[in-house]
Design goal:
mainly alpha, about 0% strand
């Protein structure tokens, strides 16, 4: 049975929250003074930006669902 609009929105809200949590964790690590290796900090900063892009994609999907279903 197809999912309802509310069910889809709920799933994508959960997905956005997970992406935001990942973004925040990577960002904290990238800026953690106890992480002394610049390469590690840079990699985590890059991943944080990628996770932010995922958040924006999921938010766009949510808008599409709200506007078209």
């Amino acid at each position: 049975m197809p999912k309802t609009k509310a069910e889809l929105l709920h799933e994508f809200e959960e997905m956005a929250a997970l992406e935001a949590q990942a973004r925040d964790m990577y960002n904290r690590t990238a800026h953690d003074p106890s992480v002394q290796d610049a390469t590690v900090r840079n990699v985590f900063a890059k991943i944080s930006k990628e996770e932010e892009a995922h958040v924006k994609i999921v938010e766009r999907i949510q808008q599409i669902i709200k506007n078209t279903l």
